[in-house]
Amino acid sequence: MKNLIVILCLSVVLFGCKDTTDDGPVIPDGQDTPTGVMLVFPHEDSLCNEGENPTPTQSTVFFEWMPNNNAENYTLHIENLSTGTMSQYETVDFIYPVTIQRPESFRWHVTYEYQGETRESALWNFYNAGPGEQNYAPFPAELISPSMAQNVSSTTSITLNWSGSDVDDDIVSYDVHFGTENPPGLNTSDISAEQLTVAVAPGNIYYWSIVTKDVEGNSSNSGVYQFRVLD
After folding, report:
1. Strand bridging mode 225-229 / 205-214
2. pLDDT of 99-119, one tens digit each?
3. What's the CA gap between 20 and 60, in Å, rounded?
4. Contact 85, 76 (CB under 8 A)
5. What are phi and psi of 22, to 5 degrees?
6. 85 and 58 in contact (C-beta within 8 Å)?
7. What is the model's pTM?
8. C-alpha span between 203 and 14 (Å, rounded)
9. How far apart, in whole angstroms, are the C-alpha atoms of residue 139 and residue 135?
10. Burial tier of 176 (Cβ tally within 10 Å: 0-12, 13-18, 19+)
11. What band does 55 get if pLDDT is binned at 50, 70 and 90?
12. Residue of 65, 61, 70 lying closest to 28 (CA atoms)
């Protein structure tokens, strides 16, 4: 196996978190980018706690996706959701081991180039479990709309939409931060819905973010998106 690490070089060990099912990979349902590869493992919104010999601070995860005949090579993208650190790895294989931190949450996807276009897989979150962890912070909410840097037609109100997820499935509420300043101030707290309609004025740039909270008092911040309301 010939692999080229193009951005961040991490030490890779022989044991780690990998799919141990005997029946081979199962193509997951509901992946919303059919032009890209189908992701297999780590599973979406899952707790990754396998591995024969993890250290207290790291473990090796075997990222896996379905091969695509149109791809000469793949780029594996991994984001540490706690630190915002992005790592990219180029490989000709469809199983790639990477040593990552624990306990931390991650988001990953795979891309490849075909006929001058970048084909992207779905985005999947997972939590790389740590020693003795019993309850885990929610994943940062996915901000759906308005999208980052979107220009919105002239209007006096807009609905913010997002999606939350948690390996413990114990999200209790969201805090919505919204306004014309960055970072935005608190607009609405402790709502259970994953959308909120807010007042806007044409000609302004707005910023918004979501804090996700669970029943144990853990929380996560989505990061800030911005959009412009046109005149």
Report:
1. antiparallel
2. 999 888 999 999 999 988 899
3. 14
4. no
5. -90, -15
6. no
7. 0.69
8. 56
9. 12
10. buried
11. confident
12. 65
